[in-house]
Amino acid sequence: MAEDGVRAVAVGAGGVAFASPTATDLVVRRPSSVSQQSRQSRSSTQFVKLNVGGSLFTTTMSTIEKQGSHMLSAMLSGRMESTADGDGFLQVDRDGRLFHYILNFLRDGTVPLPDSEADRRMLLTEARFYCLDGLARLIESHNQPSNNLDSLRCTIPVVVSDHEERLVIANSREGSPVVVFAYNRGNNKFSYTAPSDDHLLKNIELFDKLSTKFAGRILYVRDPSGRDGNICTWFMYGHGQLVAEVCCTSMVYAADKKQIKIEFPEARLFEENMNLLLYEPGVRSQPERFLHRLSSPRSIPTSPVATDI
User: Fold this and answer.
1) Which of 88, 95, 220, 265 is the most exposed place for a label (fewest CB within 10 A)?
2) 8 Å CB contact between 105 and 117
3) Where residue 304 falls among pLDDT bands split at 50, 70, 90?
């Protein structure tokens, strides 16, 4: 019997010598397994390589161990079974798109959360898988309704100059679409028709209703300056361009005087606001092509149609 670490040589038929494998040979011949000895010998400054769902990451053991005991530290220390690929990357079958949040939390003990509620729910699932209770509590506290009055406010910016309006339009290039409601009842040297006051109030009430309904999706802005003679006009911006304008005022000629008439085209205003949702960030299709496709007549099928003989 051979001693430990010494190959046992046997002579077979024909005088051919065969060497039986040692324990060292068995470890070397299993490259997909992370050996217990290599895990335990990692220092805190040693870099470790991770393959999370096909995304590759590099970090240090000190970062992994910074937030105490959790799933990753157990996998890298040998307390849990794990495998590495041929390049030495530890394989983790989880979502690699969100893993940078996990690493940043391990480094700093906190992390800015995703803006998307769907991403926060998926990140909460990942935090629970990795047994990161601190990150899970951070996400849960963010998702809970806040008692702070600031969270109940719907902020409506007010612009009174061309420069401020340009800043608003610039925001619509990459951010949310914008609705500017320009109104100023005193901006008129003529009198108003009888229902004009009531219609102006209805326009203002609709603006308030839409600004709360689409808060966070469309930016609503007031312009009470009366610039350019606007008495009651809606401007809709998307991707930095003026995509719609609804003027609710017109001139009425009476027998002996001119009057300003303010209208309330409620159905059209709702329609134009809904169309602005096509300009939200993340909408892949071009709104102009989408609307053209909806309004164009259906194409006639070119495939042959079987006929009865």
Assistant:
1) 88
2) no
3) very low
In DSSP terms, which residues pair with 178 in a beta bridge?
Answer: 219, 237
CA dist 13 → 1, 206, 303 (Å): 20, 98, 74
Residue 91's Cβ-side half-sphere holds a number of Cα atoms within 13 Å equal to 13
CA atoms within 13 A on the CB side of 127: 24
Q: What is the pTM of this model?
A: 0.48
- Report which of 36, 96, 112, 104 is spatially closest to residue 67, judged by C-alpha positions: 104
Q: Which of 245, 257, 168, 154 is nearest to 208 (CA)?
A: 154
For 247-272, letters b (16+ CB in 10 Å) and e give ebbeeeeeeeeebbebbbbeeebeeb
| Residues 65 and 103: beta-carbon distance below 8 Å | no
pLDDT 10s digits, 179-208: 999 998 886 777 888 899 999 999 999 999
Q: Give one word for 150, left, alpha or beta, with left for phi > 0 and alpha for psi -120 to 50.
A: alpha
